[in-house]
Design goal:
Layout (H helix, E strand, L loop, with lengths): L2 H13 L6 E8 L6 E5 L2 E7 L3 E2 L3 E4 L4 E7 L10 E5 L6 E7 L10 E5 L12 E7 L7 E5 L4 E6 L8 E3 L3 E8 L7 E6 L7 E7 L9 E6 L4 E4 L4 E8 L6 E5 L2 E7 L8 E4 L3 E8 L10 E6 L5 E7 L10 E5 L12 E6 L8 E5 L3 E8 L8 E3 L3 E8 L5 E8 L7 E7 L9 E5 L5 E3 L5 E8 L6 E5 L2 E7 L8 E4 L3 E8 L10 E6 L5 E7 L10 E5 L12 E7 L7 E5 L3 E7 L8 E3 L3 E8 L7 E6 L7 E7 L9 E6 L4 E3 L21
Parallel strand pairs: 1-8, 10-16, 19-25, 27-33, 36-42, 44-50
Antiparallel strand pairs: 1-4, 1-5, 2-3, 2-6, 6-7, 8-9, 10-13, 11-12, 11-14, 14-15, 16-17, 17-18, 19-22, 20-21, 20-23, 23-24, 25-26, 27-30, 28-29, 28-31, 31-32, 33-34, 34-35, 36-39, 37-38, 37-40, 40-41, 42-43, 44-47, 45-46, 45-48, 48-49, 50-51, 51-52
Amino acid sequence: MNRFLTALLAMLFLATASSAQTSKVQIIHNSPDPTVDIYVNGILAFNDFAFRTATSFLDLPVGLPLDVAVAPGNSTSVADAIANFPLLLELGKTYAVTASGVVGDPVTPFTLLVDDAAQNQSSDPAKVQFNVLHGAPDAPAVDVVVRTGSKIVSNLAYGSFTSYLSVDPGVYYLDIKPAGSNTIVQTYKADLSGLAGAALRVMASGFLGGTPSFGLYAVLSDGTVAELPATPVARVQVIHNSPSPTVDVYANDDLLIDNFVYRTATPFIFVPAGVDITLGVAPETSTSAADAIATFDVNLTNGSTYIVTASGIVGDPATPFTLNINNTAQEKAANPVNVDIAVLHGSTNAPPVDVDALLLANNVIADLAYGQYTPYLGLAPGKYDFAIRAAGDPNVVASYRADLSNLQGAAAYVFASGLLGGTPEFGLYAALPSGAVIALPTTPTARVQVIHTSPDPIVDVYAGNSLLIDNFAFRTATPYIDVPADRNITLGVAPDNSTSAADAIATFDVNLTTGGTYAVTASGIVGNPSTPFTLVVDGDAREAALLPTQVDFNVLHGSPDAPAVDVAVVGLGTVISDLSYPNFTGYLSVDPGSYLVQIIPSGTSDVLVTYRADLSSLAGGAARVFASGLLGGTPAFGLFAALANGTVIELPVVVPPATARVQVIHNSPSP
């Protein structure tokens, strides 16, 4: 504080000695004019006050009318003032007074911008708080966006300032954009690392098209004014997907990544943009960039986001070592409710591929060749299974599980890696923005057989959006097939003329256990409130007998209007008691052979009907026997057996021979 200010303060305090109450005031010179002198109530307060300088926060009296006069730096008295401004401070407020505008300019005239909600320290000692002043007279309204963050200033016009924002200490890159535009005018680096507990004012200063030139400046509470350096940067993630040893990566002469291991990735980092950079890849034992075995020249664009993938094989003329650069990379999803993924084909000896999202859509990726990558695909968080096929070939080579359940709002870069039929072996990997690389496991599956015993017409069956069974006829079955497990699946049943899962007349949600074996039986009658259409799921189904010398079977009561029944086997007695619709039994094991099966209404001894079950050729096999049809209608009641291969056999009815009533009496006098 110079002697002029000391004298001024003494006089002001004498004038208000009865109260001596003060407010804190900081004065900032941001008018693109020469050095000025500032008079307060006719007394020189600041001599030779330079452009882009500031005072610390001063204690000035409240309630005293102040006349602030601004004069050229060579002034001799207040009479030389070129502008005067009245100022009355209020108790309890903190002020930042900024000289702004251009002397003599009728559009943006010289003025004082008064912020009476200024802060001289952060209200949170762990945070840095700052506000932003638009003080560049010829600049349009602007947005300010924190790179990798959010828009913190929206449509800020000249002469306006924001309220205070609270951030963690750290380094921030601020993109200045014309309001409503995505074009970056310039990027500035704000290093707030050591400023926890501080408050500051960021101001735009100067002219876009003149002198002094435009810039961003930070004004600290102690009066320090620091220029924020213009720092064009790009965001870059580097992935090592070349089946080669660990390497070192250099940017020009600087070691960028030390001991970079195959199938690892860096997090996204800031890299200078708009300058020529030579990327060098060297053995892990390197001592300098001169040891590089391959170099690549790049010049990155400010504001862009890149994924740079080391790919190919060193010394291979067909697929040489190279850097695959994706200049449309994402660190987060475009829609915060989704997960965005892109896919890179990085397997040097694999053919072009098609990729299906099982149960969702086929050909989500078509004809992707080595070295190519896809645009980002937005998916709802959840579990997905991606089946890989050689392009144009319907046969699935492999299927991989991608669990995106916990990645809402994030992005991931999936890359094919390794060699088909070689070492390292082929696989799919996902690189996250944090640098974590996750090996995608093969799709977990369950074995499922579907049986149609609902007395209805032919139907279509969907799993998710995919047609699982087309034109599924009554009393037929599928063989056991692999179905993705450990994820939610909606099974839909639709008329046989359906065109999509949206045509389903009934849906059922299932989640199968990995490694489980299921029999899913369509049963009941559509529209019948007593025995409605449903799916009967047996999670303990068997494809084969436990013992290779026996036959295992269980029984499902699938006849909606039939009463509960007992089942007896001639020669073995009752094997099932009181089986009601739509229940099923556990498995029974018997020797191969031909058996007479009697159906008996529960609680009676009356045999309703007898069937022959010929199991002679089924040693080691398993079957599911199901009652089907209606006792008193069409289709008629019958007993059927579904084998593991999908074959459905109708068990024939055995008609007892004709009989007469006979009584025999022994009346011969013989022993």
